[in-house]
Automatic annotation (TrEMBL):
Gene Ontology BP, a term: polyamine transport
Main localization, broad class: periplasm
Spans traversing the lipid bilayer: none
SUPFAM superfamilies for this protein: Periplasmic binding protein-like II
Location in or out of the cell: Periplasm
GO molecular-function term, one example from the UniProt record: polyamine binding
Keywords from the named record: Periplasm, Signal, Transport
Pfam families, alphabetized: SBP_bac_6
Protein name: Extracellular solute-binding protein
Amino acid sequence: MKRRFFIVGSSTLAISGLLSGCGSQQKAVLKVSLLKNSIPVQLLNEFRQEIQRSASLDLVAESQLQSLFTQLQNWQQKAEASNWWSNLPLPFGKQKATAVADLVTLGDYWLEQAIAEKLIQPLDPKQLSQWQQVPQAWQELVKRNDRGKPDPKGKIWGAPYRWGSTVIVYRRDKFASKGWKAPTDWADLWRNELGDRISLLDQPREVIGLTLKKLGHSYNTEQLDKIPNLKQELLTLHKQVKFYSSNAYLQPLILGDTDLAVGWSSDVLPVIQRYRNIAAVVPQSGTALWTDLWVRPLGNSSNLDLAQKWIDFCWQPEIARLLSRFTPAASPILAGKNPPEFSNTDRNQLVLSTPEIIKKSEFLRPLSEKVRQEYQSLWTEVRFQGLGVRDKGLGAG
């Protein structure tokens, strides 16, 4: 799922020098590979103060989640190659060890694959003092078996530290000038006046999912052929759409080429803060949720205490509030809450949502290969079926 590619930039940002104090060569070093801008500088400085006497922090930030997942794969491949070389007689068997991070940001979409490919190792919740503060839905999300499938009795494979949702974003000025009622739920995407005025994500799970939600079903429905009118609802929605894209869906809205879009809250939040004529809403019937996790690469056995300290630090209530205030996402510790210091603004309603909406919302669970093919087949049929409806993609997302 190519989520949050709206941020421009692909270079790797190393900021370890900023955070390593004098004499760090004699200290333990916590190495973290994380998503760029997912942790505010204030939080990093706070953690540095906590560990400065005994350790230092070495961070490398990537601009895309895909890059972080690829990094996990590369480390595993190098480890396997190193093991092969080590079995050769000297001097051929001498190989320099690959530097592997202690913790890595991973999007929940990649969790199943990371477990199945043996790229990461489980965490011990007994060693995480703040684990019980994590809401049940987030705990259940990271409990998986050794194939990466959800399992209530499974191991804990990641520590959720921030989350967001799929939202509706619209031109406030266009709706007001035309006397249209502001959208509040998925059903509004089918309104006649929005014909050919919508930007949608180029993602089968998202678009089929929101249509299922509109019909009163789960995002994770497995038997699509059992849902009456699903295909017809999708075809009707397709006629409403002007653009499909997973990385450029907000530009048409900003330029006025569309009046409404569906997107990820972390992309949307910076836009509504910059453009006063653009507003966003979390659909009242519930939506799709995503979360970013801290995971431990397989084979890394160093700095376990420091890694656990970092995870617990991110889950502290005061740190959770800091993260939720200064980044375009929220800590799961605050899911559905509205701390007194948070004003009741559009931003905070978008970031924190409400307990009622969160209860109706869902994470996109892993589907079997057979069911994934059913989603893709239906998506292809709707997108490219005849009926005189042209495909309106801006390119694969």
